[in-house]
Write a structure and sequence with these properties.
The protein contains 13 helices and 9 strands. By secondary structure, it is of the alpha/beta class. The protein has an 8-stranded parallel β-barrel, surrounded by 5 helices. The longest helix has 29 residues.
Length: 346
């Protein structure tokens, strides 16, 4: 993609990100004064997170927005949304160069009307590619990838505060996933995707997102090394997303340290797809650990749970904060309490 004003884009991007960082730091500083009395504790997840300059969001499926209980819970409890599927490649570009944004636009409009932020998910992923992409090779695939990033990121410029630019490009052992993107484009394709996203929307924060990175392990270390390399060479990466699809009782002994080591590279960290299989106190304890770990890392900017209610979760082990009848679970209370005590740890 040709960018006629790359310098202007980079300057605009740096200014916008610097302004956002200053604003977040100011809110975090004020929060130390806000949390002087338990009586001042917020009563919803989004409001509580906002008092430390963070967001607490949920993944949204457009087909459920017409359900009153779903919409009311989403609008009341959360201050950020992300599309489960409506912004992915198969949904936004079903045919070459033919973009359709109806689902994503519906979510953005719904969120904006309620003063909620929107995360973008995801520009490039090995899964949920439209059929026409799967057979492309070489420069045809490279051009398709760059054109897709440009079309989608341009469309949502100013409406999405962060993008998962690349999703799930590493294997458990730290090697690159042998997707069509990796096989056809080589090791440079992730950098190419980030540079294209930066040119298309220089104000959005650009994230790498993956699962199985909930502690210091082979996979998270490989991603850490990539991010460190990107930062050393000026590749535009601003944040790393940790999906955190967990189960009650999972070993999270290095979870906070893992978040912190990425933050120490100079990127923000976000919990992007949190859900915890289980129930009762075990599930609540795991949600509590994740929440407090984020609060303890100054550059952990927010948490997104992957869904609103157990009724519509992609998992069948009741992994969310609201049950199938939209009742608050024990895990909800643990998260809210952790957020309301967060002023002293941020």
């Amino acid at each position: 993609m040709t960018d006629p004003h790359p310098r202007t884009h980079r300057v605009r991007r740096r200014l916008a990100l610097a302004t956002a960082a200053v604003a977040a730091a100011g809110i975090a500083a004020v929060s130390a004064l806000v949390f002087t009395s338990p009586a001042q504790a917020a009563t919803t997840l989004g409001a509580s997170a906002a008092q430390t300059g963070r967001y607490f969001g949920a993944a949204v499926a457009t087909q459920h927005l017409g359900e009153a209980a779903y919409a009311n819970t989403l609008g009341t409890e959360f201050n950020s949304v992300v599309a489960e599927n409506a912004m992915k490649w198969d949904a936004t570009e079903p045919n070459p160069g033919q973009f359709t944004f109806s689902g994503g636009d519906q979510i953005v409009s719904w969120a904006q009307a309620r003063g909620m932020k929107v995360r973008g998910h995801t520009l490039v992923w090995h899964a949920q590619q439209p059929g026409w992409v799967q057979g492309l090779t070489g420069n045809n695939l490279r051009n398709a990838m760059v054109n897709h990033i440009t079309g989608v990121a341009n469309h949502y410029e100013g409406k999405v505060f962060a993008w998962d630019v690349v999703n799930e490009a590493f294997e458990w052992d730290g090697s690159r996933r042998q997707s069509n993107l990796q096989i056809q484009l080589g090791n440079g394709w992730i950098e190419e995707a980030f540079r294209a996203a930066d040119a298309a929307d220089p104000t959005a924060r650009l994230c790498y997102n993956d699962y199985g990175t909930d502690g210091i392990n082979s996979k998270s270390t490989a991603i850490y090394n990539m991010v460190r390399d990107f930062k050393s060479r000026g590749v535009p990466i601003d944040c790393v997303g940790f999906q955190s699809h967990l189960s009650a009782g999972d070993n999270l002994s290095s979870y906070q340290a893992n978040l912190q080591r990425f933050a120490d590279l100079g990127v923000d960290v976000e919990i992007t797809e949190l859900d915890v299989g289980g129930s009762g106190s075990g599930q609540a304890a795991t949600f509590d650990t994740v929440t407090r770990s984020c609060l303890a890392v100054a550059r952990c900017t927010g948490i997104t749970v992957w869904g609103v209610t157990d009724k519509y979760s992609w998992r069948n082990d009741t992994p969310l904060l609201f049950d199938g009848n939209y009742q608050k679970k024990q895990a909800y209370t643990s998260v809210l309490n952790a957020l309301n005590e967060g002023g002293s740890t941020c």
